Structure formats: structure tokens, C-alpha cells
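A further point concerns the way the authors explain their paired sequence and structure data. Showing the layout once, in full, would remove most of the difficulty. For illustration, here is how one protein appears when written out as sequence plus C-alpha cells:
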Amino acid sequence: MTFRYIKKSYKYIGLMALMLMGQSCSDLLEEEVISNIGNDYINTPKGFEDAAKSAYSSLRNYYGTQQGITMTEFGTDLYATGADGGYKGFHFYDAQLQPTVDYLATIWDETYRGINVCNAVIERAPAATVSDAIKKARVAEMKFLRAHYYFLLMQQYGPVDLRLTETILPTKKTTRAPESEIYKQIIADLESALPDLEAKSKATDYGRATKPAAEHLLARVFLAKGNSTSKAADDYAKAATYASNVINNYTFKLLPDFASVFDQANQNHDEVVFAVQYTTDPLTNSTGNSLHLYFGMQYDVQAGMVRDILNGRPFKRMRPTKYCLETVFADRVNDSRYKKTFKDTWLSNNPGKFTNVFDNSKTEVTFKAGDTAIFIPGYEMPLAERAKKPYQVLVPSRYDEALFPVNRKFLDPLRPDRTYEPGSRDFMCFRLADTYLLLAEAQLLTGKVKEATDAINMVRRRAAFAGKAAAMEIKQADMNMEMLMEERGRELLGEQIRWMDLKRWGNLVERVQKYNPQAAPNVKAIHLLRPIPQTQIDRTEGGATAFPQNPGY
């Protein structure tokens, strides 16, 4: 069974707070009725359930969205910009990255809406006419979500306003809580939620938070805290414990084939620890998971091709860096992840004879329907060899901002037509391979190199081509942070995690300067935090004095 987020019924709970609204004081006097549901509805069994479900919906603002991918994959060592699209200041770290950029406020406002709904459910639970068991379960879920939201906010923006009670009336009194206080609350929420969350791999209603989801998040939180100014001596050990719990105490399994992790026909599989749900129902899917749009190259104007549902609508936003392709994915013999991450073949859906050929080894090509029209070999195939091929061959020397290897993880062939944007693919926030890699990182940082090697080899063996598992195993002497950073790149490419990985490791500036020529001239230490949205500062009593902007913006 799955449950659907209730997006409208309790939207008013989030809109109550001025800090969640980019409006002036005069706007507040012009009240707009957005719901006829009374304030006591939350006390009823259905109202309590609706409110709890609606708290999940803010995850859809971050995961599987253009603003989410912009703030997590742009400006890293693995992705560069493609030909089209905006918000490239997040990649170039230039003057475009200003406090007035709407994505900053969009993420901020919607995340605080989610937090306010969590606060409302937690505070009003005692009066709800539901069983004590349901109250405990829903409050635990809200604590998981509140912690999740605050962790995302703090990783992106640094110290933020820490609100733990429902904001019912507009207020302009906000402050930035210390990082240590926010970490303390995140951990307290998650640890107090553990006893009352479902202690199994899949929730009864698939999509709800579970105990292993909270433990996975705790592993991430303690790793981040251990690399922060709030660090404690046992942070890495605690991260290892929680990651081990997820691996050992439930029924999660690494799927035998890396490609099957992203099979849209089987999304609720044994590797998923926590996912944000999307659907094919346009009434409940809102803007959907739109990641299928952003990783595509311009295949649809090439010889033998037109846009279709299978190959996607290519917005040409995210282009893998040279480092990503040539170093991270250098092993194509033993490791299947290059082949299974990147789409390399396009079959002609527009047959005929063409002279507009990007492959300089030939002047024209002729295709029947279903013939190979484009092939990306992944290496510099010699000109003479390419000339023998009856199709266009895209080699690295011909890559540009419009033509490049395409990350296939998020393609969505279930869309009803070729222009349809709201995808239905679930977004895996936490999956078991990530848990193993978090465990390996925590063990490495506590000096347990053998254990870290064993953990990372679990992921590497799964990624091997048939018969190559032994060749994929690394030895203890090879286990170091560089290996770990590259392994996370190979396994989790594009999965909205890399920017926060680099931030956690403290090497964002170093790696961007080394591996991202577009961003290298501008990136500096201030970019470990995003600008606070100007709307937040403007609507705070006392302005920048009470709610100061991050340094450098």
C-alpha cells in the first residue's frame, strides 16, 4: 500500500507564518481564504491523518526538482553546465548568485512550510481523537521530517531560525540559532522518534518514514557534525553505529544489478531506505519529478532523430565534467557503472538520408527506423574506425555543451507525451548503497580501515560486470578518502548529494578549482554557504542586524 501526500487541506498551516511568506506588511492585511476547513479539523481522525501526510509534501519541492538539482549538483567536481537553462550562478559562483535569486527563497519558504506543519501535528496530537498508537507514530514521523528539513536548511544556508512550535499568527521576530543548537535539535528529534517509527524496511504505507530511514539520516547527520565546528569526539563512531544498524537490522539488500536500481517498473525494491513519492495521477503529482529533463543532450535535432517519449525532452542543463568521465568512470572493463549510468545509443525514429552530421568521419548517413543513429563509445575512436560505422559516433573531442554523455537514471518513459514535464518516477533519498558508503566513511575516519574496505567492497562487487567481482575489490592499502570520494561519485552521480558531500568533506573549493574549470576562477570559502534569501532578511524585524546575511553576499 502507498499513501498520497495531502497538499491542499493543510496548506494554510504553513502559510500562517510571516517567515514563510515573501510578502510586505500591507499584503498581510488583504487576507485570502484558501480553505473552508476549520482550525479544529486537525483534531479529527481524518484531519490528523491529512495534516501528517501533508507534512511530507514539502520534500517534493527539493527532491526531483530543478531547484533541488541546481543546489546539489551544479558547482561541484562532477557536473558542468549544458547549453541551456538559467541559474548558472550556482555553478559559476559568480555575481549571478545573489540573495534575490528566487530558488533560494523557494527552497527556504517551502521547507519552513513543511516544518510548520510538523510543529502543528506534534503540538496538536494530544487533542486529536485518534488512538495513542497512531499519535505516537505520526509524531515520530513529524520529528523525522522536521529533522530532515532542518538538516537540509542548515547544510545549504548555515544557522537558520529554529522554530519548534506552530506559528499561527504572522510574526517578524526571527533569529539565527547557533549551529550547535540546530544539530542538537536534529539529533534529539531523530533519536526520540526511533522507538515509535516502524522498525522494518518498508512502512505499512509505503512512503512513510521508518526507523531505518531515521537511522540512515542520523548517520549522515553525525558525519556532517563530525566535520563541523560543533563536532564531538564520538560523532564518527555514532555515524558508523547507525549505518550498521540499517545494514544489519532489517531486510534491505543491494540489488544484484546496478541498472535495476533505477528500473521505473520496480521502484519499491529492497535497496530503497526512503523515497519521495511521485505518481502518474496529474491531480496529485503537482509538478512531478522533473529530473528527466535536465541531463539530456540535444539528440532531437540530430540526423535520424526527433524528440520522443523514450529518449526524453532534453533541456541540456547538466553536463558531466572531464574529471567525472575520465577519472571517476575510468574503469569500463570491470565496473559496469559507466555503461549503466550513461546512455550511449539512440535508435533512429526519423528514417531517411541526412547530410547534417556532427561526426566528421562522414558527410552523410542513411537510416531505417530502428537503426542505430547515434553512438557514444566513451573513448576517442579513431577517425578511420568511425568512418566504417553507418551511424554517427560522438567521441570525447566532439563533446560540447549540447552533445555529451547522458545520465539515464532519471529518464521517464511513462510520461503520456513527449512534451509532458511532471514525471512520475519516485526519488530515492536514501538507498542501501549510500548507507554502505556512509559506513565506510565513518569507519575510515575512526581508523577502522579493514572494516571500511569491506563496506566499500560490498558496493563495488555489486557494480562489477559478470565475472569481474574479484577484480573490483580494493585492498586495504587502497582505502583512503580519495577512493571514497570517487566511489560516491560513481555510485551516486546526479542523485542530489554531491554538493553536500563536498561541503561535509571541507574540500568544495579545492575540488572545484581542480576539476571544474568553469567555476575555478570564482569559487571561494564563502560558497560553503548559500546566500540567505533577501525576502527573509527584509521581513525580519531589525533586518540584517537581527537576521544577518552570510558573509560575502
